[in-house]
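Researcher: Last one for today. Full complex below.
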Amino acid sequence: MAGDDSYKGYRGEALAVLKSFGAMVWSDVEIKTSRGAYTGIILPRSETADPHHVVIKLRSGYNIGLLARSIEAVAITGRKEAHYKIPEKEFPFDPGKPRVKLLGTGGTIASRLDYRTGAVIPAFSPGELYGSVPELADICNLETEKLFGVFSENMGPEQYIATAKAIGREIEKGVQGVVIGHGTDTMHHTSAILSFMVQDSPVPIVMVGSQRSSDRPSSDAALNLMHSVKTAAESDIAEVMICMFGPTSDTYGLLHRGTRVRKMHSSYRSTFRTIGDIPIAMVSRDKITPLRQDYKRRRADRSVKIDTSFEERVSIVYYYPNMKPDIIDALIDNGYRGIVIAGTGLGHVNKPLYPALARCREKGIAVYMTVQTLWGYVQMYVYDTGRDMMELGVIPAANMLPEVAYVKLAWALGRTTDLEEVRKIMLTPVAGEITEREPSNGYLILQGGIPEVEAFISTIKK
Amino acid sequence: MSEYQFNFKPFAEMTDADYAEVGFRSGLEIHQQLLTEKKLFCRCPAGRYSDKYDAEILRHMRPTLSELGEYDGTALMEFKTKKEIIYRINRETVCTYEMDDTPPFMIDERALDIALGVAMLYSLYLVDELHIARKQYLDGSIPTGFQRTTIVGVNGWIPYKDRRITIIQLGLEEDACREVSDVGHRRTYLTDRLGMPLIETVTGPDMRTPQEVAEVAQICRRLVRSTGDVRTGIGAAREDVNVSVRGGTRVEIKGVPRIPRIPLLTYHEAMRQWNLLRLRDELHGRGVTPETFKAETEDVTRLLQKTSYQPIRDALDAGLVAGCVVLHGFRDLLNWQTQPNTRFSREISDRVRVVACLTKLPNIVHSDSSSETLSSAEWLAVRKAVKATEDDTLVLVWGGREDVKTGAQEIAIRAREAATGIPSETRQALRDGTNGFERILPGPDRMYPDTDLPPKQVTEERLETIRRRLPVPIWTRESWYREIGVPADVVEPLAASRLAGLFEVLVKDWKISPVAASVALVQFRKRLKKKGMDVRRLDEDSLRWIFALFRDRKISRDGVLAFMETVSRGGTLPQAGEIRPASEVEVYAQVQASSAALRSIKIHNPDKKVHALMGLVMTALRGRVEGASIVERVRAAAEEKC
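Model: Here's the assembly. Have a good evening.
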């Protein structure tokens, strides 16, 4: 019996008490404790919860915890085991509709909660998706493939490469669009690396996630899925994009270019924002409205360039005042080959770091400067300090976002060890990661409290 | 023959035996806001209401499937309505948590303490470890689509008459939005009340008459108020009342704002259920059962192109459509009385209004209606077109194509339910004491664990601290009050008052007469409040100060009132040392002075003159003398000057 799920999640004192009464999880019980008497079903306990309490589900559906050591008697009256299963309905096939492939990497969008245990379980087959978002069948014929099930903070080169290759395969098979379900935390890292690894795609590649899991009635998952699937099936934008809520209201989504986008709020629905530029398009359930014309168009062919180079020994250093050179030295000593600095203002670090930067140059380590202001360009000529740093081999990375510069440097160093070649790759835009100009509406953070802003947000549902 | 022979009598004539005859049962779910500074799961200020708002957001609610792969009945209904939900947001009272854009913060500790204290007063078995649950609400009244709620205790009781009323459970939860409007496919909410801490107390279905329901509600109300830790005023306490009759179904009347309204509401609901059961018998007698029930729907837009019945005329002119539902074997049954002045057709119309969002009334007409609707020629044409017989009833519904489709479905659904009995519903309390459909009653499968918050242990030390500060239960206080001779009309208000503790000190420790103390604490306050004074200024400290003077015989009972008035007015109290009973000389001088002052006022009625003079003297002496002891002297003075 050891190691099975009879007492799932219980340990220590609570486990001992349950065992002493032979009360396994899912037992229907009447428990007497020193505080009172309670009737319900013993539930599995979360592994991270303390070892002192037993959880029961009352008849009313509420859960309560009882102190194990206060339990005096347990009468077992039955057993009601629950297995959570998502209802599946066969996804209907319509020969007149485009083929869209949904690749799953994990994250909130592709999961549901096991309500009894609180565990997150994947919900991803076409049947499961159709069961919960039947509207998808009005848009396309959906096929799905689960690549992996990881939270987005655990995405890395292995997953980037596998995803890029999977996209290549699907395009060769002739799908009209690819949707990638992804956790939102690092979605912009993945969208950036896919923008480099997958080039000249003939079809839209749309990354999507959700900020509220689909087991919540107010979830953004369903609408995000509809928006992203519609974009993959119908839009003529053949780029890597992120498709997430525009405002917090359930109104429209935005299509952000994969290299110019960033998660900007830890929990808002409308967390993704195009930085230093405007999004490519708006998408609602009815239509896709391009906001600009300079995007790559959909093609009928099936050719695509896949280059999954990736050098893992690249780091990103977020500069702070009083930073000591040992941070940089540690990277050098550990064999890192590339460093992206997120500097202050126009791209600065303090003087004590200079010797370490000089060491980087001696060791042939590529060092690129970006700005922690996120908006704006690196400009290292304005102050002498900037010029000094360039002397030390630090290369300004224009208006590339720090995370984008990080994955691009990894990609470039994966392709070549020649630093001059790397420099060329880094500073030649591949997918809009560096823009020649910043439009005046590319930097808009409305400041609350100002009367004209208040008037704007009171009439338009943000 | 039928077990539903009994006919409901008018409300005033119903006896306990009559309620026993119909098997009346009722229980309460009492919602009471707690007096905290902050909301339950965020740090917004609690208890600030304003219709002003700075921003609006728009959301939709989507049903999520239960573990069994079934949609909850309410969830499905709300999804059918396809409502756009608009939330109005006032920045002062609402943050991104209430908007469902930020995860919850830890539970407000003060709210939890209050809830635990009340749970102790109800003798509930307390929970060792709290688990926050999500209770789904798809009407949009909470932007997340669920209410965060947790059980604090189960299985308690209160004494009532010669028995106990079970308290099934006490939950601590966040309050919902206030609805502004619900028109067509758009429902608008104000969010200021959202997230306020409240406790929900659920009683067993133990009440046997409408009066009992109200009495038990009063006991619970006074019990929680006795803690001094709950909010009072409009909307701070709201009752949901569950009612059923023999053979009936639990129906919930939602959000009753005032307890005195409960008896009539529950009486009408019992009557409605009874009459629906009789309707079911009638249908069965006609051979209409849930299995044999038949209804068809036809589009009759073209047939009615020329109608002069205004509501349909307007709809067709606006390019909308009309549908007809044939209910086989229902002849005359839409006229079946359910509540006073309310017929079965109303149940159908309510469903169409709520589910199909056809909110402009009338939204249906039927062929048995006695009022002027279609011409008889039109009815005939429709009847012919849909192939209905004399035994059938026709119900027309009009509006947008999708809404008419939903509406027609709902008409058939509700009619079929009549052959089953009474649908489980949440109903709203109407002003006239009757009730109307609000939504399908949610099933038990809408409770989910909240994975955003960890379980929270309730330690024995915490409970001990709360227990020490807990007031004595009101029923214990009340029997003591009666023993020591507190006037009958003061007993109940005093027991629930936050001044009950002070009363005990005054009587037990200071040996002040129970009558004097209780009348001052309850009646004097009431009197001052009536005069429009702010009695909240009368805190325990100032009352102690006043009663100390009374105890030391420096002032009379009138003096207590006079000083209470001074405090209520916001005036300052003199130094206690300066106060002593008025001397003979002072009284004499004051009577003379006041008589002189009175001369400038023309009063002809001698009795009134005495009264006025008495008032002047007492005010001037500020209660430092007992009125009764000087009344003869005042009378003499008043008559002397006549």
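Residues 584-640 of chain B form one domain. The mean pLDDT of chain B is 90.
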